[in-house]
Amino acid sequence: MKIALAQFNPTVGDFAGNAARILDLAGQAKQRGADLAVFTELCLCGYPPQDLLERPAFLDRNIDELKALAGKVPLPALVGYAGRVKNSAGKSAANKAALLCGGRVVFEQSKMLLPTYDVFDESRYFQPADKQVVYSFKDEKLGITICEDVWNDPNFWPTRLYERDPVVELSKQGTSVLLNLSASPYTIDKRNLRFEMLRAIAIKQQRPVVYVNQVGGDDNLIFDGASMAITADGRVAAQALAFKEDLVLFDTATGQGEIHKQPPTEIAYAYEALLTGTADYVRKCGFKKVLVGLSGGIDSAVVASIAVDALGAENVLGVSMPGPFSSAGSKSDAATLAKNLGIPFTSLPITDVFEEYKRALAPAFGDRPADVTEENIQARIRGNYLMALSNKFGSMVLSTGNKSELAVGYCTLYGDMAGGLAVISDVPKLMVYELAAWINRERELIPASTIEKPPSA
Questions:
Q1: Of 2, 96, 111, 289, which one is the catalytic site residue?
Q2: Is 41 a catalytic residue?
Q3: What is the arithmetic mean of pLDDT over 243-253?
Q4: pLDDT tens digits, residue range 286-323?
């Protein structure tokens, strides 16, 4: 059986748009000879829907759209959606995978293991499956799981969060291929962990594992896709692109499939994640253009570079806001960066406004000596400038603080924290330098003087 692994970038609540992408990819799968298209977890409504699941109308729309989709999809397709639970004394919703075939829903499997830790809160919304059922389809016996259902292998994890293991239960029923519809967010090194876990399952159960993962950004979550099929001997037989919509085929009869190239290093993978998160956050919030305050430092240089690669140079405005203590080198580095990136650039000095602030506050401050207060005033003037430009031109401000600074409070409230998206707020300072090196791998976009200079306030 030829299985199409179909990963795309859904938008939460955009049923029409998500259904259209499902139909488009299903059409591509049919043209390429697939027998079954497998999509991702909750792809019809978008993941994570969070409190929208508490609205009855949202669940009704899921069900209505699924029925409509069943009548249009050109080949059998396994689709994730949020459905209702019948005769349940627990939650009214379930995280489901529906097999669409012949114009109707022929089989459904609910998610059994509901993660409630870190960024996940699924037991708040969903009723878990009470059993796993194998479904016979063509010449295969499908074992259908959803995301967390495969993250409880007793042979892989030293400690387990759940008593039951859906994979083992399906294997005992004679499943011939394990399918997993997933929406697994990206974190550093997770791709290696995920592969080793899936490989261990395939080898232990002696069955191929087909894993289809969501791609794209949704608020603070980034999904890396990189869907894969692993054979019973632990070999990657098919793999989709990372951080991009893609469709690849895997043939269960031959154990062969398509393998698309992955980012070569972990820092390259992280950079692609930041591009995806930035592009999707800006787009899904309805913006097209962004502003970045350019200080001449490495943080703002990396953020501006990410913005250019994510959105295009024409959609990024670099703003230099030199103050009374800004060095000539910092001003020059900001201008050089903008030139190298090919972005529009403007300089708005803050010295006059800063002096007016000091004069206005002098009666209240009295004879107290200058301290961090005056430093923070400068940061807040810059934040005010950027937000004024944002209001006037409808561009989103990208703030530039890194994780190390935010962790210790080395930032100014209403100052350099101002913005719509903190692009590198989960990136430690040392990794910022690694990202800068990756950006400069082919030519010097970020000035060497920016990278080499010591950090400043």
A1: 111
A2: yes
A3: 98
A4: 999 999 999 999 999 999 999 999 999 999 999 999 99
Contacts of 158 (CB under 8 A, 6+ apart): none
For 175-195, give the DSSP string: -SEEEEEE--B--TTHHHHHH
Catalytic residue flag (residue 442): no
Are 37 and 25 contacting, i.e. CB atoms less than 8 angstroms apart? yes
**Averaged confidence pLDDT in the chain:** 96
- Strands (DSSP E) found in 323-420: 345-347, 396-399
Which CATH code for domain 269-452? 3.40.50.620
Residue range(s) occupied by CATH 3.40.50.620 in the chain: 269-452
Active-site position among 43, 45, 147, 411: 147
* pLDDT band with cut points at 50, 70 and 90 for residue 89: confident
Of 237, 232, 263, the closest CA to residue 248 belongs to 237
Is residue 454 scored above 90 in pLDDT?
Answer: no
Q: How far apart are CA 315 and CA 67, in angstroms?
A: 40
Instruction: Tell me how far CA of residue 200 lies from CA of 151, 204, 205, 362, in angstroms.
Output: 11, 6, 8, 68
In this prediction the pTM is 0.94
Q: What top-level class would CATH report for the domain 2-262?
A: alpha beta
Q: Tell me if residue 339 is catalytic.
A: no
Quote the CA–CA distance of 243 and 271 in Å, as a whole number: 10
